[in-house]
Predict the 3D structure of the following.
Amino acid sequence: MDTRWMSVIRFSSVTVLLLVLLSALNQRAVAQEPITLSFSDENVVVQSVGPTSVNYDYNIGVTPADTFVACMPESGAVFEPGATRVDCTAGAGDQQVQGSFYVLVTNGDNTDVEIYNIFAEPFPVEPAGFLTYNVELRNIANATARQVVLTTTLPPAIKFLSSNNPNCNTRDLPQLTCTILTLNAGVPQGFLIRAQLNPGFTEAFQYTWDVSLGDNQVDLRADNNRFTVNTQVQVRQAPNRLFLPQLMES
């Protein structure tokens, strides 16, 4: 065979092989593009006097745009009054991402109070240092919540100093009870707890807060009524000492 044709065949074979490899790498890059599943609101609140059909497609965001999303119960399902958790799965190729939100069907007489966040400042705190806990709550249903009671047992690591909430009962420390008289729907509210790290505590610790409602109110969900607080302690290491040999006098 003519050597010129051999060269052409070899060049064509190498070109085809390179195109196949580039195509495979491109497909792999597309398949490995990370999936992001998000919700414009963690709670879809629907006011109804009875069972109602709920469409929540607008609540779901996902990238890439051609990613498959499936939720159970499906959008358009009939929901009874109360709270229903909706579990969603987004998939593309061999990747899957899960997420969930809640559909709250209420007649306007119900509340859903959650401990949205509790965090300590500074983080970490130095041994025997002062720290402030920021307690944040929100009511994500329709009706105003009254007599919102938060309770906790303070750990041995900290000593309670004060709070800007005048309705905190400190007579039974380390059991601490703080009340928010009114928590309007959709309006976050919080207070501060000031404390000091007791001497001798140098390890990280955590403790739990719980929230409940008074006045015979109905709380639509119970899984958001507890929050665990983590506190880190910064321990400064002693500087390394440099030992120099003593010079003997002659």
About this structure: DSSP finds one helix and 17 strands in the chain. Helices lie at 3-31. The chain has a mean pLDDT of 85.
